[in-house]
Design a protein that fits this description.
The chain has 14 helices and 19 strands. With 478 residues, the chain is an alpha/beta fold. Helix 2 packs parallel to helix 6, helix 9 packs parallel to helix 10 and helix 13 runs parallel beside helix 14. The structure holds 5'-deoxyadenosine (5AD) and iron/sulfur cluster. The site of 5'-deoxyadenosine has 12 residues, from strand 13. Iron/sulfur cluster binds next to helix 7.
């Protein structure tokens, strides 16, 4: 039987995506055999760490696992468990190692269990060394560049006794038209580009996700049209730096122009995007954001630091004043836009004065919400070698002060819509109170209000009766 399979593997077509569909067919047969041996349907569980990009990648893995006959489960005690990892901060890596220990114990009680690891952490050579040496029970390891060939890797894992490792350093390849299992029926992420060219000096992403590659506009538009035909009303365009979308295409196009094409799609009600880099946020984009109601009233614009000196060492290519100017322009062109941000505390060389500059921007801009991060040293990045690392105790103290300020402002800003009526897209029933549903407004805020399951995926007009800090309690206006 093994020889038979090897022969079939050798006969696989060369062109994509045909090759992957061929492997899905092969995998289906292998999974069926395994399932017969187990006397039950085999299950899978994909656990996602990190950002929206990873969440979208996980949907692609799930789409393939379902195609080949595995059944989805939320329980990690499954027959195929995949950790889709993040490595932006060091504690993300530590968490994965910890959880692998518990997975190993489950595996010892389930002879059918296979464990797969993928995502950004796998692109770090020292991680692979460690897995080879101390985590030999892992069956499959792959990275961020070859996720499209998961079906092929799956077949290899199903026939090979030892750990399958396939890590690529980079790729130009983008494979279209593979199956995806969406988490939500009514909204979806859509990758518009992969990788990052910015090399912010603290960030590991350009090393693990490779150089910027944009998808062709026609492929993006086709994907969204198909999603809309399948019931999707809201899309989130995904890229590490969406503002530089299209620059490297054969026929260059700006992100703003792409958005203008996307909003024309009939049946599509809302468009969001993430993440924007202040250095590339053009006047053209600001104008387009103000012009089309379908483009959501929200922008995530990472500040990282308010100190021009630190921003320079971070390699961010903007000053405090330029950031503030951008905010002013945005607020003028898109009234009442919700602004959110990322801030790092304790970057090497950050003095009390630098930190105060960050606090000053926070107070001036009054972000609707902000993700605050303690600087994490990522080996291989320029900042990790700087000899001006800030002591932990100093960072913790500053972090506490920043968090307090950010939360105070955020609660005040959230409240500014109290008493108004807003259109929301209902996303689900409330976990704590089943008589309530949860809807999302254009500005990304949530409101809980009386309703039932039948409302999921529909738009409702809701009066925002009571602000609870980061969300609202409301009632539907019919
Ligand atoms: N330490 C702390 N935060 C980081 N981020 C990226 N790299 C690091 C790091 N080394 C944060 C940035 C980025 C967000 C996704 O993660 O704020 O915008
Ligand atoms: Fe990292 Fe900077 Fe690229 Fe964002 S823009 S992924 S922070 S290098």
């Amino acid at each position: 039987m093994k020889e038979n399979i090897l022969e079939k593997i050798n006969q696989a077509p060369v062109d994509e995506p045909d090759r992957q569909y061929y492997f899905m067919e092969l995998a289906r047969g292998l999974v069926e055999e395994k399932s017969k041996a187990a006397g039950r349907k085999l299950t899978f569980c994909v656990v996602t760490f990190g950002c929206q990009m990873n969440a979208r990648d996980s949907e692609k893995l799930e789409g393939i696992l379902e195609q080949v006959g595995y059944m989805k489960s939320e329980d990690e005690n499954s027959d195929f468990v995949i950790y889709n990892t993040c490595t932006v901060r060091e504690n993300a890596n530590l968490r994965v190692y910890g959880r692998l220990g518990s997975l190993n114990r489950m595996k010892q009680n389930n002879p059918h269990m296979m464990i797969g690891l993928c995502g950004c952490m796998m692109q770090e050579p020292h991680v692979i060394e460690k897995l080879r040496k101390s985590y030999r029970f892992v069956n499959l390891v792959f990275g961020t560049h070859n996720i499209y060939k998961f079906a092929e890797l799956l077949v290899q894992t199903l026939v090979q006794e030892t750990m399958v490792i396939d890590i690529w350093k980079d790729t130009d390849k983008i494979v279209e038209d593979l199956p995806v299992d969406r988490k939500y029926a009514f909204k979806s992420g859509v990758n518009i580009m992969f990788g990052c060219n910015n090399f912010c000096s603290y960030c590991i992403v350009p090393y693990v996700r490779g150089r910027e590659r944009s998808r062709a506009p026609k492929d993006i538009l086709k994907e969204i049209e198909l999603l809309v035909a399948d019931g999707v009303k809201e899309v989130m365009l995904l890229g590490q730096n969406v503002n530089s979308y299209g620059k490297n295409l054969e026929d260059p196009i700006t992100f703003a122009r792409l958005l203008e094409e996307i909003v024309k799609i009939e049946g599509l009600k809302r468009v969001r995007f993430m993440t924007s880099h202040p250095k590339d946020l053009s006047d053209e984009l600001i104008e387009v954001m103000g012009k089309y109601p379908k483009i959501c009233n929200h922008l995530h614009l990472p500040l990282q630091s308010g100190s021009t000196k630190i921003l320079k060492v971070m390699n961010r290519h903007y000053t405090k004043e330029q950031y503030l100017k951008l905010v002013e322009k945005l607020r003028k062109a898109v009234p009442d836009i919700s602004l959110t941000t990322d801030i790092i505390v304790g970057f090497p060389g950050e003095t009390e004065e630098d930190f105060e500059e960050t606090m000053d921007v926070v107070r001036q801009v009054r972000f609707d919400s902000a993700f605050t991060f303690i600087y994490s040293k990522r080996s291989g990045t320029p900042a990790a070698d700087m000899d001006t690392q800030v002591p932990d105790a100093v960072i913790k103290e500053r972090f506490g002060r920043l968090l307090k300020e950010v939360q105070k402002i955020s609660a005040e800003e959230t409240g500014r819509l109290a008493g108004t009526v807003q259109e929301v897209l209902v996303e689900g029933t409330n976990d704590h109170d089943p008589s309530l549903v949860t809807g999302r407004m254009t500005n990304n805020l949530l409101v809980h209000f009386p309703g039932d399951e039948s409302m999921i995926g529909t738009f409702r007009r809701v009066s925002l009766d009571n602000c609870k800090g980061f969300y609202y309690i409301g009632t539907e206006r019919r």
